[in-house]
């Protein structure tokens, strides 16, 4: 049981813990739901081009797919459900109308229903995290799975922010997840710079998935046909009462400078001179 | 229960050279979201599990020994696309079957031809004409991929003139005795279940044909040597030999003397589904040519910058897209119950002839390299040519269409 009442803590902290306790009991007594956030991104195999006006990357007439790390997140959620630890896997995607395609892929993989928060704005991780928090308040999942990062912005922030906003424990860069149903704990191996770290996190928790966690299944043909009848609920940011004002403004997007070919140096002195005065690394 | 096919490492994807080109973006007017998902899924499956074997299948003239492609396709629910769900099928229509056929053909022409013979010529004929008992007996194993199916109508002396077949079925107590030969039977060497047409009444012309279900191992039924073909190598084809082969009464498909209706109506749908084969080959040609012309340089520039090459590629693309539109529109009509023999013949007539030309141009775009067997283009041409011949030659298809147009008011 988590430490619930600390006399020195602020009222807001205490009430958050009370919510945690309620959720904790809630999750112990009922089979849980898993919420999986899936992002629609430019397909990993596409050659990226920057728009001429430098406001972003070209996405018109470009192949889009589910973020590969989100696929891994969804796969893990499906496996947990198939092992009997969860009763429902809900896929959620935030973005334009075409996100429905991404959700349909998720449904075809085996998710039970989808939620589409429709918007044409580009939202940065904090806004996404706020939206996911609102959804978690409504759906009360026992686990929230996200990919560790999206391959278009490589932010690696959303999962961590969702956990902080909810006051839930987080285990990021998961390469192995084992659930203990009785203790309501997830044991997660994390891939960190120093190697592998193993954490026990009390549920409900946020887990972000790394490459080696699993290999996502193909959407089987029968499941693709069945997915047609699975529901996708449409919502707006207004429905969820989320403040979408962002403190970050994207000024410009440019391609990295073209890689120059290597230069043969004639002596160590010349090498040091170049490292110091051209590359500015020493 | 998890179902995993070959390993899909994302790292592997990033490192491996691109095999798939994105010129496969067919018009979204052709397909709705579910059909696009279906196509994407079969495409992934075929590229991961079939395409890696394509070259070796062609070189060795046989399916791979280390992996059972029939079972793999069966596990992916590919065989029974048009079969009822109670037998393990998907209960879908010809549109979906064509989508699957195109994507498998894109990975390997030989595998697609064998797949088409198994899933359409055999399985679909049983679905359309079989009794409940026959479907119960034969469909489950065919749909799972445990058994391979085939169909035999042509004979050494009866190709285009298929109604002139000489294979005889003499009525005896409890069944029939079959005597004769069948030629160019796809999957013949490995099939456990075969639909075979024979003459129960040699004097009644077309009305004397009856369709039978033959099982491998029936006494008097044997297969002769595997044929050594120009293309579609690996899609085993052979001659069937019937020497006093007893076939029980219950193995008649539909009714005695009604075989020609089974045959002709089956041919319409066979032509439609097989028409997706050349579509896949044309797509494979583009998959091979586009990366090549982007990277091959002559006169200091990629050859894809030159007008002649761009012209060829444009012609290849439009040939593919227009054939695709025809095939899938007709598939939609057939799913809605409007089967027009003219259009069914038209789709394969059109797609097959274009595919041969596209494959020739693909070789030309690769220049000297196109003539080297290390590149796929030679195989694509040899595979494409079959579609102008099998399922009724182009000449027969023209007669079917022209004759009908002449007769119509």
From TrEMBL, chain A:
<dbReference type="InterPro" id="IPR014729">
    <property type="entry name" value="Rossmann-like_a/b/a_fold"/>
</dbReference>
<dbReference type="GO" id="GO:0005759">
    <property type="term" value="C:mitochondrial matrix"/>
</dbReference>
<keyword id="KW-0813">Transport</keyword>
<dbReference type="Pfam" id="PF01012">
    <property type="entry name" value="ETF"/>
</dbReference>
<keyword id="KW-0496">Mitochondrion</keyword>
<protein>
    <recommendedName>
        <fullName>Electron transfer flavoprotein subunit beta</fullName>
    </recommendedName>
</protein>
<feature type="domain" description="Electron transfer flavoprotein alpha/beta-subunit N-terminal">
    <location>
        <begin position="54"/>
        <end position="244"/>
    </location>
</feature>
<comment type="similarity">
    <text>Belongs to the ETF beta-subunit/FixA family.</text>
</comment>
<dbReference type="InterPro" id="IPR012255">
    <property type="entry name" value="ETF_b"/>
</dbReference>
<keyword id="KW-0249">Electron transport</keyword>
<dbReference type="InterPro" id="IPR000049">
    <property type="entry name" value="ET-Flavoprotein_bsu_CS"/>
</dbReference>
<dbReference type="GO" id="GO:0046395">
    <property type="term" value="P:carboxylic acid catabolic process"/>
</dbReference>
<comment type="function">
    <text>The electron transfer flavoprotein serves as a specific electron acceptor for several dehydrogenases, including five acyl-CoA dehydrogenases, glutaryl-CoA and sarcosine dehydrogenase. It transfers the electrons to the main mitochondrial respiratory chain via ETF-ubiquinone oxidoreductase (ETF dehydrogenase).</text>
</comment>
<comment type="subunit">
    <text>Heterodimer of an alpha and a beta subunit.</text>
</comment>
<dbReference type="InterPro" id="IPR033948">
    <property type="entry name" value="ETF_beta_N"/>
</dbReference>
<dbReference type="GO" id="GO:0009055">
    <property type="term" value="F:electron transfer activity"/>
</dbReference>
<dbReference type="InterPro" id="IPR014730">
    <property type="entry name" value="ETF_a/b_N"/>
</dbReference>
């Amino acid at each position: 049981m988590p430490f619930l009442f600390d006399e020195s803590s602020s009222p807001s902290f205490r009430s958050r813990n009370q919510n945690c306790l309620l959720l904790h009991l809630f999750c112990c007594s009922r089979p849980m739901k898993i919420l999986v956030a899936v992002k629609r991104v430019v397909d990993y195999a596409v050659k990226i081009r920057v728009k001429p006006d430098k406001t972003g990357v070209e996405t018109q007439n470009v192949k889009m797919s589910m973020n590969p790390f989100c696929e891994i997140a969804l796969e893990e959620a499906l496996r947990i459900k198939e092992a009997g630890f969860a009763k429902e896997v809900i896929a959620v995607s935030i973005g334009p109308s075409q996100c429905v395609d991404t959700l349909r892929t998720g449904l075809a993989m085996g998710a039970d229903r989808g939620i589409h928060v429709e918007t044409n704005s580009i939202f940065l991780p904090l806004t996404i995290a706020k939206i996911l928090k609102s959804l978690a308040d409504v759906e009360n999942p026992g686990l929230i799975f996200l990919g560790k990062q999206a391959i278009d912005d490589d932010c690696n922030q959303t999962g961590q922010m969702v956990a902080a906003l909810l006051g839930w424990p987080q285990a990021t860069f998961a390469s192995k997840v084992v659930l203990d149903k009785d203790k309501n704990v997830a044991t997660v191996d994390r891939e960190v710079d120093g190697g592998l770290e193993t954490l026990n996190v009390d549920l409900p928790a946020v887990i972000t998935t790394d490459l080696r966690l699993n290999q996502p299944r193909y959407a089987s043909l029968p499941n693709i046909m069945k997915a047609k009848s699975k529901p996708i609920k449409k919502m707006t940011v207004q429905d969820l009462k989320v403040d979408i004002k962002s403190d970050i403004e994207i000024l410009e997007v440019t391609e990295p400078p073209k890689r120059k070919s290597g230069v043969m140096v004639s002596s160590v002195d010349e090498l040091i001179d170049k490292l110091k005065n051209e590359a500015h690394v020493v | 229960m998890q179902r995993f096919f070959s390993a899909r490492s994302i790292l592997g994807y990033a490192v491996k050279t691109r095999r798939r080109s994105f010129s496969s973006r067919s018009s979204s007017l052709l397909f709705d979201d579910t059909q696009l998902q279906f196509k994407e899924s079969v495409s992934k499956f075929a590229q991961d599990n079939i395409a890696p074997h394509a070259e070796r299948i062609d070189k060795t003239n046989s399916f791979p020994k280390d992996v059972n492609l029939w079972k793999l396709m069966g596990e992916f629910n590919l065989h029974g696309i048009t079969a009822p769900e109670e037998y393990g099928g998907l209960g879908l229509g010809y549109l979906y079957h064509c989508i699957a056929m195109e994507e498998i053909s894109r990975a390997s022409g030989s595998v697609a031809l064998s797949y088409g013979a198994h899933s359409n010529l055999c399985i679909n004929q049983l679905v359309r004409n079989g009794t409940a008992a026959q479907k119960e007996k034969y469909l489950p194993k065919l749909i799972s991929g445990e058994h391979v199916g085939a169909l035999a109508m042509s004979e050494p002396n009866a190709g285009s003139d298929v109604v002139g077949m000489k294979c005889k079925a003499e009525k005896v107590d409890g069944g029939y005795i079959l005597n004769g030969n069948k030629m160019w039977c796809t999957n013949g060497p490995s099939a456990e279940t075969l639909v075979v047409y024979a003459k129960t009444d040699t004097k009644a012309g077309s009305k004397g044909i009856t369709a039978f279900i033959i099982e491998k191992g029936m006494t008097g039924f044997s297969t002769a040597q595997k044929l050594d073909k120009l293309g579609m190598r690996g899609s085993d084809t052979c001659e069937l030999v019937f020497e006093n082969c007893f076939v029980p009464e219950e193995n008649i498909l539909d009714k005695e003397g009604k075989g020609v209706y089974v045959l002709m109506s089956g041919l319409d749908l066979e032509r439609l589904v097989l028409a997706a084969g050349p579509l896949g080959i044309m797509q494979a040609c583009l998959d091979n040519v586009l990366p090549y012309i982007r990277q091959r340089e002559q006169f200091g520039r990629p050859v894809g910058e030159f007008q002649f090459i761009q012209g060829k590629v444009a012609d290849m693309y439009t040939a593919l897209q227009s054939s695709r539109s025809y095939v899938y529109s007709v598939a939609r009509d057939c799913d809605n119950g409007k089967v027009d023999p003219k259009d069914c013949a038209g789709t394969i007539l059109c797609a097959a002839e274009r595919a041969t030309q596209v494959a020739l141009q693909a070789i030309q775009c690769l220049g000297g390299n196109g003539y080297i067997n290390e590149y796929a283009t030679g195989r694509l041409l040899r595979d494409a040519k079959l579609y102008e011949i099998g399922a009724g030659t182009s000449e027969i298809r023209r007669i079917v269409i022209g004759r009908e147009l002449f007769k119509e008011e």
